[in-house]
Amino acid sequence: MTSSTKPTDKEIQNIFNNIAPIYDQMNNWLSFGVHHVWKKMAVKWSNAQPHHQGLDLCCGTGDLTFLLAKQITHGKVYGVDFSPQLLAVAQEKQQQKPSINNITWIESDVLTLPFDDNTFDCATMGYGLRNVVDIPLALQEIHRVLKPNSKVAILDFHRPSDSLLAQAQRWYIDNIVVNMAQYFGSTAEYAYINPSLDRFPCGEEQIKLGQKAGFNSAIHYPLAGGIMGVLVLTK
Ligand SMILES: C/C(=C\Cc1cc(O)c2ccccc2c1O)CCC[C@H](C)CCC[C@H](C)CCCC(C)C
Ligand SMILES: C[S@@+](CC[C@H](N)C(=O)[O-])C[C@H]1O[C@@H](n2cnc3c(N)ncnc32)[C@H](O)[C@@H]1O
């Protein structure tokens, strides 16, 4: 895989399996802990309520799944990911959280979700949409499994419209992020972020894709000056 070619499903899976042991620590260091705030905002925008059935797509090590589960005190939450190594970290983390007992972890590709139509009252996806090999299909699947009027909040990197900030973001990822990853022997895995962001549709395009997938409402909220964003889709 060269940095400009789009990786296959298997290559994406390998990237995340490889970085499982350092994934959480790197996110905390690189974002100075701020990714937890962005994740809380995504849960709020998903409109999760105590009796809901919730779904966290591309759940990885489960940060968003745990936040959803805290909000959904009387319902069930499903965390879905195709990386067994990241799911294992999520399950280890759950053992340190005995009060959270409403999560089911599922190893699956989010492009073929193992759920019936109209199952979920709310959903989240953190840093997943940019990584799936077929974004329109992922949005169609989310639309299929959500109940009518339910929301999904999709958090991901975004290129800011301010060109100086966009350059600073690119520099930060190519230098700080990749150099820190090099220390752990994971250069290639983190060097993949910038090209994946170059290919990722901007907020306006994401809104159109959401509408095309059948959602009644689509809003994109820029975060931190537009270096991140949350796409909120309502079925
Ligand atoms: C939450 C973070 C990363 C998630 C993440 C997403 C991916 O798609 C990956 C793919 C492959 C490997 C790893 C990942 C991955 O970890 C961390 C976000 C950190 C960002 C670089 C944002 C940092 C913002 C800071 C507040 C600094 C701002 C710097 C400025 C723009 C100069
Ligand atoms: C950057 S991580 C995000 C993890 C977590 N949601 C978070 O916010 O920290 C991206 C995740 O998407 C998962 N992923 C990518 N494509 C997927 C697919 N087609 N099906 C299931 N999981 C996928 C990866 O395994 C990885 O766990």
UniProtKB/TrEMBL annotation:
GO molecular function: methyltransferase activity
GO BP term (any one): methylation
A Pfam family: Ubie_methyltran
Pathway given in the UniProt record: Cofactor biosynthesis; phylloquinone biosynthesis
Keywords noted in UniProt: Methyltransferase, S-adenosyl-L-methionine, Transferase
EC class (word): transferase
Catalytic activity from the UniProt record: demethylphylloquinol + S-adenosyl-L-methionine = phylloquinol + S-adenosyl-L-homocysteine + H(+)
InterPro entries linked to this entry: MenG (IPR032904), SAM-dependent_MTases_sf (IPR029063), UbiE/COQ5_MeTrFase (IPR004033), UbiE/COQ5_MeTrFase_CS (IPR023576)
Enzyme Commission code: 2.1.1.329
CDD domains membership: AdoMet_MTases
Parts forming coiled coils: none
Highest taxon above the source species: Bacteria
NCBIfam families with a match to the protein in the record: MenG_MenH_UbiE, PRK00216.1-5
Stated role: Methyltransferase required for the conversion of 2-phytyl-1,4-beta-naphthoquinol to phylloquinol.
Similarity-based family: Belongs to the class I-like SAM-binding methyltransferase superfamily. MenG/UbiE family.
Protein name according to UniProt: 2-phytyl-1,4-naphtoquinone methyltransferase
